[in-house]
Amino acid sequence: MLELINISKEYQSPLEGQSVCVLKDITLKVSAGQSVAIVGPSGSGKSTLLNIIGALDKPTCGRVLFDDADLVQMDDRQLAKIRNEQIGFIFQLHHLLPQCTVLENVLIPTLAGKKNSASRRVFEQRAFSLIERVGLKDWLYHRPGELSAGQRQRAAVVRALIKNPRLLLADEPTGSLDKKSSETIADLLSELNKSEKVTLIVVTHSSRLADRAGEVLELDNSTLTTRKNR
């Protein structure tokens, strides 16, 4: 489903003629339905790697194959279509719109493009189902400011899943949560990976969340290695 081939990423250094290497010759294969956790010290390039996988950034060199199509060679319109239809994103901060209800926030990704009334009803029914599934049924019409941090993150998870993506990318999804909320999100992502059959790649410092993944990779010194495979 997903393959990274010799991915490298460099940024221009403030020092003239010099550059900073963040990723070096990263190679990775991820099968459909697999769960992968990427761990490593702060500043090691984990988020950069996730952004490249999610077509939010491009590598300095290398190939990113998504169903054998190279994302690196695609234009902005093609990448936007893939991000909207094939990939779900969960970030450390929920990025919910404060003026919108939980239901409205969840449905925001469905607003792109023309939709008939039948399509809208399908998305609304999926939203109701997922919201109930994550325990937010009684909070449908509440705004983010009326929710706890854990509830806001659960709403963000549902928003990422609303269009039934094939790939779910999570960047430190429990990083700003307390222990109990972190455990709830870790359990939820693990369960959704199995029940929704969505491929999951998560960047995390949480050993509890990483331990739920089928494969754990460590990014350090610009290179990616397998830490644990079970």
| Mean of all residue-level pLDDT scores | 91
**Gyration radius, rounded:** 18 Å
Order of helices and strands: EEEHEEHEHHHEHEHEE
* Main structural class: alpha/beta
Shape: globular
- For the terminal residues, how far apart are their CA atoms? 20 Å
Instruction: Return residue spans where pLDDT drops below 50 for at least 5 consecutive residues.
Output: none
H/I helix tally: 7
Main sheet: strands, sense, barrel: 6 strands, mixed
Write the layout of secondary structure elements.
Elements (H helix, E strand, L loop, with lengths): L1 E11 L6 E12 L4 E5 L6 H8 L7 E6 L2 E2 L5 H10 L1 E4 L11 H6 L9 H17 L15 H13 L5 E5 L7 H17 L3 E5 L3 H4 L4 E6 L2 E7 L1
Parallel strand pairs: 3-8, 3-9, 6-7, 7-8
Antiparallel strand pairs: 1-2, 1-4, 4-5, 9-10
Helix pairs in contact: 5-6
Describe this structure in words.
33% of the residues lie in helices and 27% in strands. It has helices at 46-53, 76-85, 102-107, 117-133, 149-161, 179-195, 207-210; strands at residues 2-12, 19-30, 35-39, 61-66, 69-70, 87-90, 167-171, 199-203, 215-220, 223-229. The chain has a 6-stranded mixed sheet, sandwiched between helices. It has a 4-stranded antiparallel sheet with strand order 2-1-4-5, with helices on one face. Helix 6 (179-195) links the parallel strand 7 and strand 8. Helix 5 packs parallel to helix 6. The longest helix is centred in the middle third of the chain and has 17 residues, at 117-133.
Short description:
Helix content is 33%, strand content 27%. With 230 residues, the protein is of the alpha/beta class.
